Amino acid sequence: MTVLGCMADDFTGATDLAGNLVATGRRTVITIGAPVDPLPETDAVVVALKTRTVPAADAVRAALDAHRALREQGCTRFWFKYCSTFDSTPRGNIGPVIDALLDATGAPWTIACPAFPANGRTVYQGHLFVGDRLLSESGMRHHPLTPMTDPDLVRVLGAQTRHPVGLLPHAVLRAGAAATRAHVERLTAVGGARVLVTDALDDADLAAVEQCARELPLVTGGSGLALALPPGAAPAAATIPTAPGPLAVLAGSVSETTIAQTAHARRLLPHRKVPVADAVADPPATARHLAAWARPHLDTGNGVLVYSADHREEVRDAQKEFGAERVATALEETLAACARDLTAGGVRRLLVAGGETSGAVVSALGIRALTVGPAIAPGIPWTSADHRGGPLNLALKSGNFGPEDLFTTAEDHL
Ligand SMILES: Nc1ncnc2c1ncn2[C@@H]1O[C@H](COP(=O)(O)OP(=O)(O)O)[C@@H](O)[C@H]1O
Ligand SMILES: O=C(O)[C@@H](O)C(=O)COP(=O)(O)O
Fold it and tell me: Are residues 256 and 362 in the same domain?
């Protein structure tokens, strides 16, 4: 089988994609950053990058480094994974990375397919829906780093890439493979489009998209498309080493879904909100205080929740007071240092909410690779890392994924 080389622009996205690849029967390894050492025999490698909100030139450099390393590891087909809600800014980073990977892979054209119907992400006439809302009317319009205010992906991507962008609409997909091929030919060979935004309302549409993109050396999109890949030969329910002990939940996401999950967990778990002003002033000291608060709870076997906001209004206020980037970085550093302190104190189970937050936490722990285990909910697998001489179980939760009781039921799936 072709070894699939994937680059995910954030860490929750990496575990999301890897979980779906495992579900289709592919042995899958996640590396934190480009792989350096030879990897075990595998069907797919997912490189977790933290490039969603960095300057576009840095995102391009990281993607090209990862692509080179994946090629050296024997990968022959490539996947650029970004968010199912197309999280990006007018400057990028989805478009610039696609441009660079088109050149690096020699792909004549590629698809942009964020749809993930199992998680309510669908695309119709190039417009992205989150559940029954257009992207621009969903909670994503208030995202602290990548507010998404335009649901028209052809327009959004068109502003980011130097190539013409086309649309593979639902009606054409439903008309069958021959009609799809003819439409693609018209847009690419005749019209010069290099990226086609693909409609998809359900798994049947994703299967049609997968079929039309099967020969391409590069595909781009969310993790939903992975579920449409032809089945592989590995067991779809992967087992991973597990560690005992209570779970610490660190939530730095302020999506509507995470805020609801946090509110639910506050009724059941000992909890502490990160004091934002303290975090901005001194992340390591703030983390030490939070870890010291958590210790007695953990020692008696109780899980804990540390989180960064009760309400969206607090985010706006904090951004006004300190600046959006400064407060985001300070909170990421605080939660990352808290994870370091908690694991140094013996915690072996962590659930981290938020892509940027997960990137900060996993990097601070010095983890180089993750193995993928059972799914907690669509797009959220348990993983295991070697850490301090034993397994550390990590669930990296995308801001927008998971049921309301996720933080208190996640361990049932380990
Ligand atoms: N109270 C807050 N005020 C301002 N920014 C916040 C607050 N809480 C969290 N953030 C920042 O918002 C960002 C959320 O991004 P991320 O962790 O990727 O979550 P999501 O997965 O929901 O996108 C992080 O950079 C985090 O530090
Ligand atoms: O595709 C998705 O929605 C997720 O895999 C993803 O990228 C998560 O991003 P965050 O919501 O920022 O965690």
Answer: yes
